[in-house]
Amino acid sequence: MKAIRAVAITLLLLAGLASSSLAADLDPNAASGGSSPPAVSAGTPAPSNPFAVTGAPAPEIKGPSVWGILPWGGVGVGARVMWPLGLPQLLTNARVHDRWALEAGADLLHWSYNFGNPGIAGFNYSWTEFLPVVGIMWNVWLNEQFAFYPKAEIGYAFGWFSDWQGGGPQPTYGGLFADGAVGALYKLSGGLTLRAEAGYSGLKLGAGWLF
């Protein structure tokens, strides 16, 4: 009888341990002391670096841009229209990708000068330039949103003085010119694109609608 009683008690203990182990396997909170695991939000995207190199294909974009200009010592405004060019890509074996584009438009620049001295009649005038241009730009895309570019332009300058107080006839100016610049594009939603550019004409800041 004692042997039968010991075997029964042993079987009951083993059954109890098996039941506890099975309950722990079915209840994930049991292994962590009853605390629930942290909730995972599927709707929250992981933070991303807008300047990260992702290897995404370079988009072909076109559309208008406008900007304000700070020429060295003056002010100005300008506008461009961009079209894609079907030239061969140069970066074929890199994680960044490139596209060629054609831009045409015009800038209007203005400077004012004051050469007055105490006790001497002032010699004040202003200078304005209207610059229609056309150029080619090489857009290097780090990802689908951000690109930087060098650009070369040629144009024809029309310039004139205002409030000329010098002796003789008021001079004018006109002629062909070449210009170079570097810039960056940052695409937002809906085609809105922020632009910054620096070159011979000065610093340009503006926005485009590029699709």
Q: Can you walk me through this structure?
A:
The chain is mainly beta and 211 residues long. It folds into 2 domains: 1-31; 63-209, Beta Barrel (Porin). The chain has 1 helix and 8 strands; from the N terminus they run H-E-E-E-E-E-E-E-E. The chain has one helix at 2-26, and strands at 63-70, 75-85, 97-114, 124-141, 146-162, 172-187, 192-199, 202-209. The chain has an 8-stranded antiparallel β-barrel. A hairpin with a 4-residue loop joins strand 6 (172-187) and strand 7 (192-199). The chain is elongated and about 60 Å long. The model is unreliable at 1-34 and 37-47 (pLDDT under 50).
How many DSSP H or I helices?
A: 1
Query: Considering DSSP H and I runs of 4 or more, what fraction of the residues is helical?
Result: 10-25%
Strand content: over 45%
> What is the count of structural domains?
2
For the terminal residues, how far apart are their CA atoms? Answer: 91 Å
User: How is the CATH topology of the largest domain named?
Assistant: Porin
Strand and helix order: HEEEEEEEE
> What is the level 1 CATH name of the largest domain?
Mainly Beta
Taking the sheet with the most strands, its summary is: 8 strands, antiparallel, barrel
The second-level CATH architecture of the largest domain is Beta Barrel
> Radius of gyration from the CA trace?
35 Å
Going across the biggest sheet, name each strand in turn.
Answer: 1-2-3-4-5-6-7-8
Number of strands: 8
